[in-house]
Specification:
By secondary structure, this protein is α+β, with helices and mostly antiparallel strands. The protein contains 7 helices and 7 strands. A hairpin with a 2-residue loop joins β5 and β6. The radius of gyration is 20 Å and the shape is flat.
Length: about 190
């Protein structure tokens, strides 16, 4: 069998690093956290005056949505402004804008998954959205949330809670397939 010759350029290699910057995330022994320069860009963002400025802000925030619990509910007023012909900056939008900035500045450090321990899915549903936390040994790995569709608002609370569980299983499938995991919900019959 013929051997392969692999080379590494010394100027592009770093060894013995305690943390690595990768795609806007800082990965270290503590876990995965947001890159502070990107968060500072979010904090310095002025209130949007146009739809494209709002989309730019919301897009940058959405990149880090897995770090923010209830991101969809926090950003719901801003999402509503992106609908055709509905961009009009008002007090509720400014409040949501400020609150999203505040939450983005206090993002937790997320744990790196360890496939030797069981995963925990905490699911919850409210009147307007669903939220999920993927955890392991009480440390969060990722947060997920989404707004309910208009038709889903009419679901019974049982159906909304089940929808949250199904959404969680779909979203975090890559972590859960073939692994033992626990699903927690505040709905007793589920």
């Amino acid at each position: 069998m013929e051997s392969q010759s692999l080379y590494a350029k010394r100027s592009k290699c770093k060894f013995g690093m305690t943390e690595v910057l990768y795609l806007g995330h800082v990965i270290s022994a503590q876990g995965v956290q947001v890159h502070q320069e990107k968060i500072q860009a979010i904090l310095d963002w002025p209130p949007p005056k146009t739809l494209s400025e709002l989309r730019g802000f919301f897009g940058l925030c959405s990149y880090y949505r897995r770090f923010v619990k209830g991101f969809s509910q926090l950003g719901a007023p801003l999402t509503d402004l992106t609908k055709k012909g509905s961009f009009h900056w008002h007090a509720q939008a400014q409040q949501s804008f400020d609150k999203l900035k505040e939450f983005m500045s206090t993002c937790p450090i997320l744990a790196v998954p360890d496939f030797t321990h069981p995963f925990i899915l905490e699911c919850d549903a409210s009147g307007e959205g669903i939220g999920v936390v993927l955890m392991q040994d009480p440390h969060p790995i990722a947060f997920e949330s989404r707004k309910l569709l208009r038709v889903e608002w009419l679901y019974s609370i049982y159906d909304k809670e089940m929808l949250a569980i199904i959404h969680a299983l779909t979203k975090f499938r890559q972590y859960l397939v073939g692994e033992k995991f626990v699903v927690r919900t505040d709905h007793n019959s589920l």
